[in-house]
């Protein structure tokens, strides 16, 4: 897809990127907010606020360059172990973002979906998510998936339960289950798997993110903390992705 040149931000790394062959789906683990704050002598919550701003910048840029799907890991099933004040700050930032999105998503043609068990969130957040979902159903643009109370293992268990229920109800049969039909039970049903997974913050692990979907994703790790992550860092990740030899178990011709 050729984009008008002016839409791409100029940078050294941008020169290394082939914008006609970007991945369709990019996943990002939004990590490093707490350390970013600590290095500035600020409370961890300040890091989450800064991280939310970075998310706005990167999501807008992804939409501008025509990415089909952006999936971000914002709160894991394990993140409930954090202090209550930190959890409530993250939920508050989420609420603000949802309210903002309800006003802008139609104008920007951005679909906003939530992946994870949102039944554990407040009734207000669940209602906002439902409204975002309803509007998204009428739109066609870039789809941004925000993973909240998301765990890769929980997603697989949830899918297995749904499949078992369908079998008991007589609408599915165990011997007919394939990888493709199993995918239809995941939160990510209908969405192609991410080709590129980016993890800022220096850790080199999945932390229970998209266990099924990342089977063949290219991983890109960087020590840059999420609040410091820029469009230039995204370009570096694209350039790294485009330099990889993706063989999918085959051999290089
Ligand atoms: C990521 O940043 C945000 C969430 C997990 C909610 P962290 O809060 O994990 O930041 P670090 O890893 O402690 O720096
Ligand atoms: C992963 O980050 C989860 C999110 C970014 C939402 P964590 O900070 O929770 O992961 P660990 O604890 O370093 O593995
Ligand atoms: Mg972390």
In terms of topology, how is this protein built?
Elements: E1 25-29, H1 33-39, H2 44-64, E2 69-76, H3 84-108, E3 111-115, H4 123-136, E4 143-150, H5 152-168, H6 179-183, E5 196-199, E6 218-221, H7 231-243
Parallel strand pairs: 1-2, 1-5, 2-4, 3-4, 5-6
Helix pairs in contact: 1-2, 2-3, 3-4
Bound molecules: 3-methylbut-3-enyl trihydrogen diphosphate (2 copies) and magnesium ion.
- Sheet with the most strands, sense and barrel status: 6 strands, parallel
What's the arrangement of strands in the largest beta sheet?
A: 3-4-2-1-5-6
Query: How much helix, percentage-wise, in residues?
Result: 40-55%
Q: Compute the gyration radius: what is it?
A: 19 Å
User: Treating each run of at least 4 consecutive H or I residues as one helix, how many helices?
Assistant: 7
Low-confidence stretches: none
| Helix and strand pattern | EHHEHEHEHHEEH
Q: What oligomeric state best describes the polypeptide chains here? A: single chain
**Alpha-carbon distance between the termini?**
26 Å
Provide the β-strand percentage band.
5-15%
Mean pLDDT: 95
Number of strands: 6
- Structural class, judged by helices and strands? alpha/beta
Bound molecules: 3-methylbut-3-enyl trihydrogen diphosphate, magnesium ion
Shape by Cα distribution: globular
What this model shows, in words?
The chain is an alpha/beta fold. 40% of the residues lie in helices and 13% in strands.
